[in-house]
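Troubleshooting entry. Yesterday's outputs looked truncated, so today I'm pasting the complete records for two proteins to confirm everything comes through intact. If either block looks cut off, that's the bug. Protein one:
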Amino acid sequence: MRRALVVRGGWDGHQPVAATELFLPFLRAQGFEVDVHETNEVYADAEVMAATDLVVQSVTMSSIGHDELWGLRGAVEAGTGLVGWHGGIADSYRNSSDYLQLVGGQFATHPGKEPSLRVGDETDNYLPYTVEITDLGREHPVTAGLDDFELESEQYWVLHDDLVDVLATTTHPTQPYHPWHRPITSPAVWTRHWGKGRIVVATPGHTPEVLQHPSVRAIVERGMLWAARA
């Protein structure tokens, strides 16, 4: 039986408990023994991490200590898979450039609605947008067979490097109330090989409702199976 470690916490606005609970039955049905932790302290436990085949992380912002960071990095390099969505992986541990290097992309912003339409809550950042599957994504096990799809939620603008393999993108248009002058395309789903390990990041997933979109859920679930140590 393979072992999955679910690590959740950080900013509660992304509902890390409710979000991760969506996927626990799937993991168990796929034969994983699932161990859930509410802090990242477990990353510093070398014995636990060596026995872990998959880490599912949902920790927005927060911080990570030296031992925890290098425990996670070392485990992935040795073959442990790492999967997450939205801020739970792409906006984690802003204090750590070494974590950033591990996952390969960092949330920068989510552009908002036209100012006169904003009401002062999180929906100010909900925009209709398209997730477009790339040519690579049409062949990759995580996204093969999926069509482009529409969401109305936070659209992540991501800073990233060339070591990511982009399976899907999303484009931020120009607007008269925004300061950029041409459309910006960001990765929406990517994979990354790190040592012997595999990483999958999906930027959709602001709420459990978004995670239950059929395409988003398929990407996360397929990502878990693809990333997990065989």
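Protein two, checking that the full record survives here as well:
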Amino acid sequence: MSSSGHLRPVPRRSTAELIADQLRSAIMVGSLAPGDQLGEADLAGRLGVSRGPLREAMQRLVQEGLLRSERHRGLFVRELTSEDVRDIYIARLAVERTACEVIMRGNRGEAVARLTPALERLEEAAHSDDRDLMSDADQAFHQTLVSCSGNSRLERMAQTLLVETRMCLTVMQETYPEAEELLQEHRRILDAIVDGAENRLLALIEEHMTDTVERINAGRTAGD
């Protein structure tokens, strides 16, 4: 009899995986900024690890597209071009638009119940005038939106865009919309779900993504 269905102990996460998680988080919030060079000796000392697992972790991030390798120079945090930003938000639009279609044809009540506290957290962050908290709450709202679809594959796709999206939001700090404007954008999204207005919801999601791309790239141009 095959033992393939038997439960086995789950292997512990490797040191390289844990290091990769820390590096992703640092890139996501801008502690390791676009264009920063990653020095092995410095990072190994700061993280308290040997160079072997550190190299393995950094290679994982190269494969994920978060780091770039330059011959004879080393590894650098990837800088997002205007085209990268546009591509990221086109991918996000595809995922969130589909999630919205599923929500509107499924359990809207559950979506409203979960998105209402997410919007409240965004409101609290907006009133704090803390841009990082606003970015966190903004992203959490959209992650909840996709999660409300109940489609695990859509959630996984949204998760793969998480770090790059947060990199975009970090770049956008200086051009982030005013708190009330940001709140209104998200209130309108929730209101459309409450009202069962699918066409309005899809239009709002597309407008939200398009406006964000324009803000980010406008900020990049102004900073050049």
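Both blocks look complete. Sanity check on protein two: The radius of gyration is 20 Å.
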